[in-house]
Amino acid sequence: MAWYNYLTVEIPFLFCMFGFTLLGPIMTNLHVYRTCYTLLGFNESDCSQLGNEDNSVTRWLEPKVQPTVNKINMVNSVINSSLPLIFCMFVGTWSDKFGRKPFMILCYAGLIISTAMSTVIIHFSSLSPWWFIISSIPNLMTGGVSSLMVVNSAYLNDITTEKNRVIRLGIFDVIFASSSVVGNLISPYLLYATDYQTIYLICLCLIGASFLYTIFFLSESLKSERKAISVEEILNSINLKEIVKHTIRKRENNARAYIFCIICINMIFAFPMGEMSVGTLYLRKQLHWTLIKFSRVNSITSLGNIFGTIFGTYVLYKIMKVKELSLCIFGLILQSIANILRGIATSDYYIYGALLISIFDGLPHLMIRTIMSFVIAPEEMGKIFAVLSIITSLEGMLSNLVYPLIYNATIDINSGIYNFVSFGIHILAIIAMFFLSRLTLPRYKPSQEDEQNKEQNEKRKTPSITSVNNFEVSSINERRSSKVMMVDVDMRKLSQTPSLY
């Protein structure tokens, strides 16, 4: 068997994500630099020092440039949240019906076009950062990286067995994390050795390699007799009404009320995701961090998050048997403390302390989805989690509008006030969690008819294709008793991935 049959989607995904994270750390720098001299008319040589030096010139320029940069980032964040949302909602169902490979190629094609457009924009130094928003549209119209991850996960589920699925999906997660670490580390040094346009060209080559590899070396994981896909067929496969209907239908033992409570709590503690849109600017102004310091800290943070998730799910949850709601509260308390430390930061040590206790940030999200899986029938998981992802994405759009407005309004008073807003929201979520812990968990119990259907399906032993919307949301408890690893696509985690443009 050829070597490329052992690793399939992992190889093009590695190329793509490495290029993606290579650009991530320098994007704020580029936007600040271009805004400074193209929109605000400051001296270009002075503007070039922003993010690279810490002196009286940069300390004077930062608060003058940041409000305009914030407005650009705000518009960019809203567009990046809205357009891929529509595509991401249904790409799992579409790829179930029409195959995984066409949508992979489509996502890579969008990335290539957008990166090429950005490279051209960088070449013309007189163009303002607003042009980068225009260049991002092809990528966003094809679903972006979030859709690519969903389809890649579905592909892996198709081609793996119970024996090797854990390893393959583990490799996929390691690639995502390691590309972030390496990209963040080398990006500033590569920038200082070359320039912005060279880095974009490198990224374009990497994504181009992913595109070609997918076309020539990846085979379709789903065997379908259809060879042509029409737009009409794709649109007809959308059934949003059914998704919403399953979410709001009546259930036994007050399960519907419990589900609504969980969704509301998720909405509360998910809202502070907007602080990521201003966090970099805050540290630049408050502590005068440079690009190199940002890149090092981001790399360490990525490693810390990996450790925190593994320790929380394996040691605390699986071995020590800590309850799901207790882990949610634990994670939210640590996030609240981190908000305070960032808000009162007068030196780097406050930020380092906040980053250290933030390694368990992913626990509340994971535990909430695990609790949901106890209450919901397996065949309904995909539909209800689709609604949850839609709500989270829409909330992200609102959050990315609110936090920049708060930051701009308080930049001359105390630019860290947004951290105390997040603190208040997290405290509200903790109180709601305590209230929920007083209620009895209405666990789902399959009916007699469901058990009979399950037995009939097992007797048939016919292989079935699992929709990405189903396999991405199984609970940890199910994983304990099964070797089948399910992928949980976290919209908030994706929102932390820096924009290419």
From TrEMBL:
- Origin organism is Psylliodes chrysocephalus
InterPro entries listed in its UniProt record: MFS, MFS_dom, MFS_trans_sf
SUPFAM superfamilies attached here?
MFS general substrate transporter
Q: Which residues cross the membrane?
A: 12-33, 103-124, 130-151, 171-192, 198-218, 255-274, 294-317, 324-344, 350-372, 384-405, 417-436
Keyword Transmembrane helix in record = yes
UniProt keyword Membrane, yes or no: yes
Q: Which UniProt keywords apply?
A: Membrane, Transmembrane, Transmembrane helix
Compartments annotated for it: namely: Membrane
Q: Name one GO molecular function term.
A: transmembrane transporter activity
Query: What does UniProt give as the signal peptide span?
Result: none
Q: What is this protein called?
A: Major facilitator superfamily (MFS) profile domain-containing protein
